[in-house]
């Protein structure tokens, strides 16, 4: 198999590494409610992909289908190169997951719950279990409360225990559904550092979150869901670049430039550095063409990065799908 014959694979040296997860036309309908539709998601090997979307946009359902916890209505899932659900026995040992409702017993302590999970873990021998459990508890900052019953845990402590169970053994792919849910700022920082450690060790991570700043700080890639559809995915830097709404034009002829653009029905205003042009209804080449036609000397043209928050807000507004057409024309092909 070559990189050319298999779109989406990444060539590393002589070998090709398939994406950690890939879906094609994934769809889930719950009694008339379309939770996920037409989802073609690709989580490149080695990436930290943030899955963003408003409440009910289909993040959890997509993650559950990836892990084989929910059966898709239609579409395909490939996990670590194995078709699901048939390849589950091969794929799942390489995957650590924190998903809602991990099924811990309320009457057992955190440590005993984790020992129970570890006992069912095919990659751990019984001799390795106590150490693996101790290290995982340490890593998520739960060692001091390991002897307390699960039912007495706060939401944040329950989240930490779920994270510990995902980290019991080194994995190729770690999937975290809202890992910072219920955590205080210190816990949130710890999750961020766990993700950075996993990334440094070469583990692929898929993390869903409402916290845009978290995703911006920790992720290399992002997928944005809205109403069950993936409205954007790709490298974070490429998406931010493409999603930028403003163009900063440096010119000594500010008044001439603003007048020329307004004549062409393009929103523009003077700023200290030159002219700020709103790209919502136009494109950078059209702006430059207008200016050149009007005889405006253009010294520099630069897109202004506006941050993930702005991009997310625009992608998840009601007009998101229409916006995507604009976004796609701006995206480099490998980021589409
Ligand atoms: N078991 C279920 N039965 C019926 N409807 C469901 C079920 N699970 C999810 N849904 C519906 O599917 C849609 C997507 O839900 P999902 O939980 O996947 O979204 P989400 O993006 O993870 O939301 P949140 O951020 O609130 O967790 C919602 O409309 C939800 O009500």
Briefly, what is this?
The protein is of the alpha+beta class and 336 residues long. Helices cover 34% and strands 26% of the residues.
Structural class: alpha+beta
Tell me the domain tally: 2
The helix fraction, in percent, is 25-40%
**Morphology call:** elongated
Largest sheet: 6 strands, mixed
Task: Give a description of the structure.
There is one protein chain. The chain has 2 domains: 22-238, 3-Layer(aba) Sandwich (Rossmann fold), CATH 3.40.50; 245-304, Alpha-Beta Plaits (2-Layer Sandwich). Helices cover 34% and strands 26% of the residues. The chain contains 12 helices and 17 strands. The protein has helices at 59-66, 88-91, 110-119, 129-139, 155-166, 185-200, 212-218, 236-242, 254-263, 284-293, 308-315, 320-330; strands at residues 10-12, 15-17, 21-30, 33-39, 42-43, 48-52, 74-79, 82-84, 95-98, 173-177, 204-209, 221-226, 229-235, 246-250, 268-271, 274-278, 300-304. Strands 9-10-11-6-12-13 form a 6-stranded mixed beta sheet, sandwiched between helices. Strands 3, 4, 5, 7 and 8 form a 5-stranded antiparallel beta sheet that branches. A 4-stranded antiparallel beta sheet has the order 15-16-14-17, covered by helices on one side. The longest helix has 16 residues, at 185-200. Residues 30, 33, 35, 53, 55-61 line the site of adenosine-5'-triphosphate.
Features:
disordered C terminus, five-stranded antiparallel sheet, Alpha-Beta Plaits, elongated, binds adenosine-5'-triphosphate, 12 helices, disordered N terminus, 17 strands, six-stranded mixed sheet, alpha+beta, 336 residues, 34% helix, Rossmann fold
């Amino acid at each position: 198999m070559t990189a050319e014959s298999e779109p989406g694979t990444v060539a590393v040296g002589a070998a090709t590494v398939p994406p950690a997860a890939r879906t094609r036309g994934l769809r889930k309908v719950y009694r008339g409610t379309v939770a996920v539709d037409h989802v073609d998601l690709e989580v490149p090997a080695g990436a930290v992909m943030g899955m963003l979307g408003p409440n009910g946009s289909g993040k959890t359902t997509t993650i559950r289908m990836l892990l084989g916890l929910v059966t898709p209505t239609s579409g395909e899932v490939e996990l670590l190169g194995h078709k699901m659900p048939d390849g589950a026995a091969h794929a799942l040992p390489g995957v650590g997951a924190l998903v809602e409702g991990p099924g811990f017993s309320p009457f057992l302590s955190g440590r005993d719950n984790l020992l129970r999970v570890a006992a069912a873990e095919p990659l751990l021998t019984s001799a390795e279990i106590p150490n693996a459990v101790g290290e995982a508890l340490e890593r998520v900052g739960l060692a001091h409360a390991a002897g307390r019953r699960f039912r007495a845990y706060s939401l944040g402590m329950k989240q930490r225990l779920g994270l510990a169970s995902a980290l019991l053994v080194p994995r190729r792919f770690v999937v975290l559904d809202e890992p910072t849910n219920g955590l205080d700022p210190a816990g949130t920082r710890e999750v961020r550092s766990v993700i950075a450690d996993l990334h440094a060790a070469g583990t692929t991570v898929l993390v869903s979150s409402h916290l845009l700043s978290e995703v911006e700080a920790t992720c290399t890639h992002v997928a944005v869901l809205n109403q069950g559809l993936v409205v954007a995915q790709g490298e974070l830097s490429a998406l931010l670049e493409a999603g930028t709404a403003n163009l900063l034009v440096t010119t000594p002829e500010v008044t001439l430039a603003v007048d020329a653009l307004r004549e062409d029905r393009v929103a523009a205003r003077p700023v200290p550095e030159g002219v700020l042009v709103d790209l919502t209804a136009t494109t950078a080449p059209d702006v430059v063409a207008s200016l050149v036609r009007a005889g405006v000397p253009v010294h520099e043209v630069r897109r202004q990065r506006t941050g993930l928050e702005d991009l997310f807000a625009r992608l998840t507004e009601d007009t998101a799908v229409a916006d995507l057409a604009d976004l796609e024309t701006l995206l480099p092909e490998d980021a589409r």
